[in-house]
C-alpha cells in the first residue's frame, strides 16, 4: 500500500486557497485541523490514530465483566492465551475495525467536526482505508473464532452493526435513538456475553439471563453517555441532517434526558441485584450513582463545555458499577 500515507498536504493547501472563503465556524475548525497536523506522523502513529485506542477501553472492560460474571474466570486467567487474544479482539481488532468503518463513512462529517482525522486530513486515502478495514475485519473474525466459534459470529454481528450505524442508506446515527442504542449494544451487551461464552463451562439461556439483564440495563445507561458524546459534533450533525438528541431537542434538554437514562439504567441494575439476593452489591451500585448525579448539574447547565469533563470523571463510577454487578452475578451462581 504505497499510498497508505498520501503526502498531499501542500497540494491540498494550495487548492483550498483558490476556493471561496469558509464560513467563520468552518474556518476556525480548518485552522484547528491544520494545527493538529502540523507535524507529520509515522505510519504506526497514524494507524493508531485511525484505530482510536480510547474507544477500546469500554469494550475490553465489558468483556472482562462478562468473564468475571461467568464464575469460571480467575486471576490465573489474566495471563492465559485466551484472555490475551480477547484483549486483542476487543481492543485493536474488532473495536479498531468499527472505528475505521465509522471514519470511512463519516468522512464528510469529519471535514466539519474533526478535519484533522486521517481521511479528511488526506493522510490516509480511501483505497488504503478500504484495504485496512478488510484486513482488520478478517483478523477480528479469526481471533473471535479461535476463542470460541460463537464469538466469531458475534464479531460478524458487531461489524454489521457498525455498517448499519454509519453507512447509507440505513445510517442509524441519523435516526435519533437508534444510533446510540446500537452503539451501546455493540460496546456493552455483545462483549459482555462474549466474555461469558469464553469462560462459562455451561451455556444456556438460563445461565446467561442474569448477564443479559444487567448488560441490557447498563446499555440503557450507556445510551445516555453516547448522547453526551454527541455534543461535540452538533454543528456538523445539524448541517448534515443527523438527528441526534442534541440536534432534535436542544443541548440543555438532551443533557437532561441523557442524565435520566444514565441514572435509570444503574438504579434498575441495582434493583435487579437486590432481587438476586445480593443487597450489598446492590447498595454499592446505588452509591456509585451519587457522584454521577452531582456532576450532572454542571452538565445540564453547560452541556457543550462540560461534556468531556463529565465523561472523563463520571464514567469511572459507571464502569465500576458494571464490575460490581459482574461480581454479584458470580456470587449468585456459587
UniProtKB/TrEMBL annotation:
Region (Disordered): 1-22
Transmembrane segments: 53-73, 176-195, 249-274, 280-300, 312-332
Membrane topology: Multi-pass membrane protein
Predominant localisation class: membrane
InterPro entries to which the protein is assigned, alphabetical: Chl_synth, Prenyltransferase_related, UbiA_prenyltransferase, UbiA_sf
Taxonomic superkingdom: Bacteria
Record-linked NCBIfam families: chlor_syn_BchG (TIGR01476), PRK07566.1 (NF005742)
Record's protein name: Chlorophyll synthase ChlG
Amino acid at each position: 500500500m504505497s499510498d497508505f500515507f498520501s503526502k498531499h498536504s501542500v497540494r491540498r493547501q494550495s487548492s483550498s486557497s483558490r476556493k471561496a472563503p469558509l464560513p467563520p465556524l468552518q474556518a476556525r475548525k480548518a485552522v484547528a485541523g491544520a494545527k493538529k497536523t502540523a507535524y507529520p506522523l509515522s505510519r504506526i502513529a497514524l494507524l493508531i490514530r485511525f484505530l482510536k485506542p480510547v474507544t477500546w477501553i469500554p469494550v475490553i472492560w465489558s468483556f472482562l465483566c462478562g468473564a468475571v460474571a461467568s464464575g469460571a474466570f480467575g486471576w490465573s486467567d489474566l495471563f492465559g492465551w485466551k484472555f490475551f487474544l480477547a484483549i486483542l479482539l476487543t481492543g485493536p481488532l474488532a473495536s479498531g475495525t468499527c472505528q475505521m468503518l465509522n471514519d470511512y463513512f463519516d468522512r464528510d462529517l469529519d471535514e466539519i467536526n474533526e478535519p484533522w482525522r486521517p481521511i479528511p486530513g488526506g493522510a490516509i486515502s480511501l483505497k488504503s482505508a478500504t484495504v485496512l478495514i478488510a484486513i482488520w475485519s478478517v483478523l477480528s473474525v479469526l481471533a473471535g473464532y479461535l476463542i470460541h466459534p460463537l464469538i466469531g459470529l458475534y464479531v460478524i454481528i458487531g461489524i454489521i452493526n457498525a455498517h448499519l450505524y454509519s453507512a447509507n442508506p440505513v445510517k442509524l446515527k441519523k435516526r435519533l435513538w437508534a444510533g446510540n442504542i446500537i452503539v451501546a449494544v455493540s460496546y456493552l451487551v455483545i462483549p459482555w456475553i462474549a466474555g461469558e461464552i469464553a469462560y462459562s463451562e455451561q451455556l444456556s439461556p438460563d445461565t446467561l439471563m442474569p448477564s443479559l439483564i444487567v448488560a441490557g440495563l447498563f446499555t440503557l445507561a450507556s445510551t445516555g453517555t453516547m448522547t453526551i458524546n454527541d455534543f461535540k459534533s452538533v454543528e456538523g450533525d445539524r448541517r448534515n441532517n443527523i438527528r441526534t438528541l442534541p440536534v432534535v431537542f436542544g443541548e440543555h434538554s438532551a443533557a437532561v434526558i441523557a442524565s435520566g437514562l444514565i441514572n435509570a439504567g444503574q438504579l434498575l441494575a441495582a434493583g435487579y441485584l437486590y432481587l438476586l439476593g445480593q443487597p450489598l452489591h446492590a447498595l454499592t451500585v446505588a452509591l456509585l450513582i451519587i457522584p454521577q448525579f452531582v456532576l450532572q448539574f454542571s452538565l445540564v447547565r453547560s452541556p457543550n463545555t462540560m461534556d468531556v469533563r463529565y465523561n472523563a470523571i463520571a464514567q469511572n463510577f459507571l464502569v465500576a458499577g458494571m464490575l460490581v454487578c459482574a461480581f454479584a452475578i458470580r456470587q449468585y451462581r456459587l
